[in-house]
UniProtKB/TrEMBL annotation:
This is Citrate synthase. It comes from Rhizobium azibense. One of its GO terms (molecular function) is citrate synthase activity. It catalyses: oxaloacetate + acetyl-CoA + H2O = citrate + CoA + H(+). Gene3D superfamilies: 2.20.28.60, Citrate Synthase, domain 1, Cytochrome P450-Terp, domain 2. GO terms for cellular component: cytoplasm. Pathway: Carbohydrate metabolism; tricarboxylic acid cycle; isocitrate from oxaloacetate: step 1/2. Pfam families: Citrate_synt (PF00285).
């Protein structure tokens, strides 16, 4: 950490603030003493210039398009690792040895079943309820089943809850899908890997054996890796804030799911595919590019732009490669949606508006095409994002709990309402 400092003078009041440096990336100005010394708050709606915590988990360089998990580049993890290995890395900070990986896989695999009573929660929903609504309800309800792992001050209970979340999210997500399409729930099988187990729970039917396609399960596993964690994004910040009050981990993850649902965040993959379907053909792309630029039109190119990446989202490049692999394996390489997506990307990347505003495709731009090709309806896309991001939320939640500086998050405001005034009886209004 450097010993630089920053001085802020407001009127005759001065605050001398320390500047802290991390391993890599921007320094931070510790403004903890600002209000006490100057009587002023900082103001940063959307937190565009605000660091909320110290973290060792994920580093993003938006200008260079770099994403590291515990120092390892996402490209190498997606190429060489599997999702449970990345889960271990995010949770424990190091890549597992062969023995550690075997033990971790065994522990996760043997937590994949949910309490049989869970299935009754689903019957309370309409069949056409959005699966994300079902996920919010069912994941939050997990707190009702696991009283033996909600003491957040006990590291062992925190790790048990963490493993339970990682293990059970695919089962709950698959149950949400099966309920949505009116098919019977499929139990997990312990002899399948994480992604294969999930695909089987989604697509197997009692009438015939489900044969796992290794190309598709590898693609599913890689999609999980790409969505695993992403620094202090909106849903992760939601989980941290919920956790700062001491709420149990299942309730915190349910809060993260609710935030991820928004189309500006994890809901963008569903919105991006709906947008590509609405555009429908290459000929209509200029019409939508014009709409995206029109200040009076709320339309945005879904799957484009990012708060941090002002270069190509490194996950989008890997996602695009996975899309081609899946479509080729399924014989859909001439999918019209892919043709529209690639032409839209080509045009947008050469258009002055998008270049000036540094709007590049993000992870959500290609993921929808791949998930549709794998057989998922668009309403399940954000559920899959939530499934994969659970490990990131849980790792960040654990880090927050273990942070000696952590205290309940409680931002202040700039009040622009009415000054003090007296009550007026209704007869005089
Ligand atoms: C995710 O934070 C994370 O890490 C998130 C995520 C993760 O892994 O957790 O990466 C996952 O959420 C990816 C983002 C998915 N969202 C979308 O694809 C929705 C479309 N994109 C936008 O709504 C937008 O780009 C955001 C929300 C992603 C970022 O918004 P910002 O940083 O607040 O930027 P902004 O809205 O202020 O836009 C800056 C300018 C604006 O123009 P001006 O007002 O400056 O003239 O760029 C324009 C915007 O109008 N703009 C777009 C645009 N995105 C921004 N114009 C057209 N199409 C777009 N997609």
């Amino acid at each position: 950490m450097t010993d630089q400092s920053a001085t802020i003078k407001i009127g005759d009041r001065t605050a001398n603030l320390s500047v802290k440096s991390g391993t890599i990336g921007p320094d931070v100005i510790d403004i903890g003493a600002l209000y006490k010394n100057t009587g002023s708050f900082t103001y940063d709606p959307g937190f565009t210039s605000t660091a909320s915590c110290e973290s060792k988990i994920t580093y993003i360089d938006g200008d260079e398009g770099i994403l590291l998990h515990r120092g390892y580049p996402i490209e190498q993890l997606a190429e060489h690792g599997d999702f449970l290995e990345v889960c271990y890395l995010l949770l424990y900070g190091e890549l597992p040895t062969a023995a550690q990986k075997k033990d971790f896989d065994y522990r996760v695999t043997h937590h994949t079943m949910v309490h049989e009573q869970m299935s009754r929660f689903f019957t309370g929903f309409r069949r056409d309820a959005h699966p994300m609504a079902v996920m919010c309800g069912c994941v939050g309800a997990l707190s009702a089943f696991y009283h033996d792992s909600t003491d957040i001050t006990d590291p062992h209970q925190r790790m048990v809850a963490s493993l339970r979340m990682i293990a059970k999210m695919p089962t709950i997500a698959a149950m949400a899908y099966k309920y949505y399409i009116g098919q019977p729930f499929v139990y997990p099988k312990n002899d399948l890997d994480y992604a294969s187990n999930f695909l089987r729970m989604c697509f197997a039917v009692p009438c015939e054996e489900y044969v796992v396609n290794p190309v598709l399960s590898r693609a599913m596993d890689r999609i999980f890796i790409l969505h695993a964690d992403h620094e202090q994004n909106a849903s992760t910040s939601t989980v941290r804030l919920a956790g700062s009050s001491g709420a149990n981990p299942f309730a915190c993850i349910a809060a993260g799911i609710a935030c991820l649902w928004g189309p500006a965040h994890g809901g963008a993959n569903e919105a991006a595919l709906n947008m590509l379907s609405e555009i429908g053909s290459v000929e209509r792309i200029p019409e939508y590019i014009a709409r995206a630029k029109d200040k009076n039109d709320p339309f945005r190119l879904m799957g484009f732009g990012h708060r941090v990446y002002k270069n190509y989202d490194p996950r989008a490049k890997i996602m695009q490669k996975t899309t081609h692999e899946v479509l080729a394996e399924l014989g859909h390489k001439d999918d019209p949606l892919l043709e529209v997506a690639m032409e839209l990307e080509r045009i947008a990347l050469t258009d002055e508006y998008f270049i000036e505003k540094k709007l590049y495709p993000n992870i959500d731009f290609y993921s929808g095409i791949t998930l549709k090709a794998l057989g998922f309806p668009t309403t399940m896309f954000t559920v899959l994002f939530a499934l994969a991001r659970t490990v990131g939320w849980i790792a960040q939640w654990n880090e927050m709990i273990e942070d000696p500086q952590q205290r309940i998050g409680r931002p202040r405001q700039l009040y622009i309402g009415e000054p003090l005034r007296d009550y007026v009886p209704v007869s005089k209004r």
